[in-house]
Write a structure and sequence with these properties.
mainly alpha, 8 helices
């Protein structure tokens, strides 16, 4: 089984586990769970958002996660770290999916999509590049090749780093400045 197939399996199993757990919590628990209930989403209509503060908040939180994934990804525990991250994301998405459907019915699906759009269009490729770098470095480590690597290897690694930084920057900008506006427009029509 390839590494990509294993990652898909981990994500899907975690996603299903999140769905099962959310369904066992019961409707009342999910109605009060986090920000995915109608009361908090409706508060977006009246909230004034300081986009610059939001940018620093998002950069700090997302930056810490991706920086840790990068640092741990270039070590021997890189691939297991990515699998734990995938499992957590799958589980969280499963719980979130059930929560928005319980709180909003079928209207919850656009709410969840809006919460993830457009910044996840950049975060997902960013994560895939980080995962690919970890897999590449893990295979190289297993083959016991020299640590210095050749010229193409260095270009590939540096290109991956430059791409992740660019995607990260675009992702936090869209999450901070574009996503809140999308959410406000969506809440108006709910």
């Amino acid at each position: 089984m390839t590494m990509a197939r294993k990652a898909e399996c981990v994500y899907l199993i975690s996603f299903l586990a999140g769905i099962v757990l959310a369904n066992t919590l019961g409707v009342e628990e999910l109605r009060h769970y986090g920000i995915l209930n109608e009361y908090f989403v409706k508060q977006l209509l009246y909230a004034s958002i300081n986009y610059d503060d939001l940018l620093f908040y998002v950069a700090e939180n997302r930056g810490a996660v991706f920086f840790l994934l990068f640092l741990l990804g270039i070590t021997r525990i890189g691939i297991p770290t990515h699998f734990v991250y995938l499992a957590w994301n799958g589980f969280s998405f499963g719980v979130a999916m059930v929560s928005v459907i319980v709180n909003f019915g079928i209207r919850g699906i656009p709410v969840l999509c809006a919460l993830l759009f457009p910044h996840y269009l950049f975060y997902i490729p960013l994560y895939l590049i980080l995962f690919g770098l970890s897999c590449y470095l893990g295979k190289r480590e297993m083959k016991r090749q020299s640590a210095s690597g050749g010229f193409p290897e260095k270009v590939l690694f540096l290109g991956g780093i430059v791409m992740t930084l660019g995607l990260f920057f675009i992702g936090i900008m869209t999450e901070s400045y574009v996503n809140p506006r999308i959410m406000k427009k969506l809440v108006k029509i709910l």
